[in-house]
Specification:
- The protein is an alpha/beta fold.
- α5 packs parallel to α8 and α9 packs antiparallel against α10.
- It has ten helices and nine strands.
- The protein has two domains: 233 residues, Spore Coat Polysaccharide Biosynthesis Protein SpsA, Chain A; 70 residues.
- The protein is 51% helix and 18% strand.
- The chain has a nine-stranded mixed beta sheet, with helices on both faces.
- The chain binds uridine-5'-diphosphate and magnesium ion.
- Uridine-5'-diphosphate binds next to β1 and α3.
- This is Glycosyl hydrolase.
- Keywords: Cell membrane, Glycosyltransferase, Hydrolase, Membrane, Transferase, Transmembrane, Transmembrane helix.
- Belongs to the glycosyltransferase 2 family. GtrB subfamily.
- It is found in: Cell membrane.
């Protein structure tokens, strides 16, 4: 019998969990030809998530749960999940039921046909603000144009991955993670499924504007050095322009005997160049910061317990 794992990172999801469990149990009962495992990763929740997981485990041995030592963020929680899942394939989904479990049988069918990565693409994005929608589109456009890795827009972490993909993902252990890009980066045979993203069943999204902006910067800086190149190109263009302008002033002075004037032009040039320089230093700093964190080579997460038993 093939073993199917469902990986669910959960952070403060006490309200969604009972609903989620009902839907998953219905699904698992309807598909007895697979051996099921549901692996919850409790990402340092501050509510009763852990207690609810322990209860679920008590009543249903198909449930496993991993308790991280603190809140590491969804990306790290997913890596912890990759390390601990035991299935021949794994489905990653959110705890808030934005990802309909009913899609899983379709994913499994495609997996049985030989696909290694069946990813669900959002047909609609659920309720979202205009600004968030625009910024997301801009981010994907930038990534698409600057990397050689094909990135799937409107695709989240909701997907089925074969064991080969899981083994590959386990080896990508950088601490500043942009997992969505890694799915593309590792390659293997991919297939797309369309779905309608639901609204959250309970609670609030943990991704505020700044967290998303951070993830976007993470995505860009961990998959492309294009900003550095853009900075160099900008520098070259500005220097050329400045040189041409200097020549122009010199000739004007020699030919027309024009007195060199222009405090305002001077100010504008200095301020403009100062701005460009600061921006470029900032971009370099982003990459330098990433090198700094990566060279420390710290583990991405620490585990408190697995199924209630203390990790050593
Ligand atoms: N999550 C997590 N750690 C965090 C934040 C979120 O494990 O620090 C989980 C959360 O419990 C949920 C999933 O990641 O299962 C997606 O989170 P959320 O619904 O807040 O994000 P959104 O759907 O708004 O992108
Ligand atoms: Mg959500």
């Amino acid at each position: 019998m093939k073993r199917v794992s469902i990986l669910i990172p959960a952070y403060n999801e006490e309200e969604s969990l009972p609903l989620l469990y009902r839907r998953l149990a219905d699904l698992m009962d309807a598909q007895p030809m697979y051996a099921w495992e549901v692996l919850f990763v409790n990402d340092g929740s501050r509510d009763h998530t852990l207690a609810i997981l322990a209860q679920l485990r008590e009543s249903d041995p198909r449930i496993n749960y991993l308790d991280l030592s603190r809140n590491y963020g969804k990306e790290a929680a997913m890596l912890a999940g990759f390390d601990y899942v035991t299935g021949d394939c794994m489905v990653i989904m959110d705890a808030d039921l934005q990802h309909p479990p009913e899609l899983i049988p379709d994913m499994l069918r495609l997996w049985e046909q030989g696909y290694d990565d069946v990813y669900a693409r959002r047909r609609t994005r659920g309720r979202e603000s205009f600004l968030r929608r625009r910024l997301t589109a801009a981010f994907y456009a930038l990534l698409r144009h600057t990397t050689r890795v094909p990135m799937q827009p409107n695709t989240g972490d909701f997907r089925l991955l074969d064991a080969v993909c899981i083994r590959a993902l386990r080896r990508l252990r950088e601490s500043q993670r942009y997992t969505k890009g890694m799915f593309s980066w590792i390659g293997f045979r991919k297939h797309e499924l369309l779905f309608d993203q639901q609204d959250r069943v309970a609670g609030q999204s943990k991704w505020g504007f700044f967290k998303l902006l951070n993830l976007a910067i993470e995505g860009i800086t961990s998959f492309t050095v294009a900003p550095l190149r853009i900075a160099s190109v900008c520098g070259a263009i500005v220097s050329l322009l400045a040189f041409a302008y200097g020549l122009f002033i010199l000739l004007k002075n020699l030919i027309y005997d024009d007195p060199v004037a222009g405090f305002p032009t001077l100010m504008v040039t200095i301020l403009f160049l100062g701005g460009v320089q600061l921006l470029c230093i900032g971009i370099i700093g982003e990459y330098l910061g990433r090198i700094f964190t990566e060279t420390k080579q710290r583990p991405v997460y620490f585990v408190s317990s697995y199924n209630g038993e203390r990790a050593d």
